[in-house]
Prior knowledge:
- By secondary structure, the chain is of the alpha/beta class.
- The chain has helices at residues 50-58, 97-101, 119-132, 148-160, 178-195, 206-212, 246-264, and strands spanning 4-13, 24-34, 39-43, 65-70, 73-74, 82-85, 166-170, 198-202, 215-219, 226-231.
- A hairpin with a 2-residue loop joins β4 (65-70) and β5.
- α4 (148-160) packs parallel to α5.
- It is globular, with a radius of gyration of 19 Å.
- Pfam families: ABC_tran (PF00005).
- It comes from Bradyrhizobium erythrophlei.
Amino acid sequence: MPFIELSNVDLIYGTASQDAASQTLAVSSATLAIEHGEFLAIVGPSGCGKSTLLKLISGLVQPSRGTVTVDGKKVVQPLKTVGMAFQNATLLPWRNIRDNVMLPLEIVEPYRSRQKIDRDKHRQAADVLLEKVGLAGFGDRMPWQLSGGMQQRAQLCRALIHEPSILLLDEPFAALDTFTREELWAVLQDLWSFRKCTVILVTHELREAVYLAQTVHVMSARPGRILKSSVIDIPRPRTLESTFEPGFVDLVHDLRHHIGLGKQQ
Ligand SMILES: Nc1ncnc2c1ncn2[C@@H]1O[C@H](COP(=O)(O)OP(=O)(O)OP(=O)(O)O)[C@@H](O)[C@H]1O
């Protein structure tokens, strides 16, 4: 049985009491099977329902039709086993980087009840992650003392500190310049091979999707359906050099072609 499964999922925003014109069918008949530890990317035109798919998997919204299951259980409320990172790092400006990373441990059980007893252990776990993303020695700095790329690295640590089984990434690098963004692809690839959680990445950057994912799913224009799923069999670890190889470029072109087809439908 897949770890995460979406079966014929529709999501309509707006309440049933509203007239049809005020409702939005964001996702239509989405069917997806995701294995434990898989890294997948979701691409598609703007507004096609990519973020909505993440909200459905995390339990932030419930399907209007069909079912979402995680680890064999139907998702009926927000899951605690999820870590999330978005386009803006949203670090708390009054906390240093280490304390920002440790924030989920103050909220999510069983860490929350043990935070006083395990304080040193939690600090150590935060420092291990910070080192992993190239921020060793920056734990005591304040967010404003770090560049945008460094803040995004810290955000990835915060998303992983409570050892979630699912990491949801919604355009996490979109606000960064190309060079910083490409550096962070390598950081994320390393983090994934270190933690082996299931990662779902929403991105507009097709090179990013092909560099990072094992499978890339293309969604159609709204209402979003899964149009095509491409297995990316480029060997790992992938490097920036891989992105210039003909096989890589062909995969990117093929994805772009299918997004174009999806827009026309
Ligand atoms: N809370 C909401 N209430 C009503 N409509 C919404 C809500 N959230 C999203 N939508 C609509 O649902 C559709 C899908 O939105 P979603 O954010 O999932 O798309 P997306 O593919 O992630 O977009 P983008 O690529 O631009 O970030 C859009 O038409 C959007 O306007």
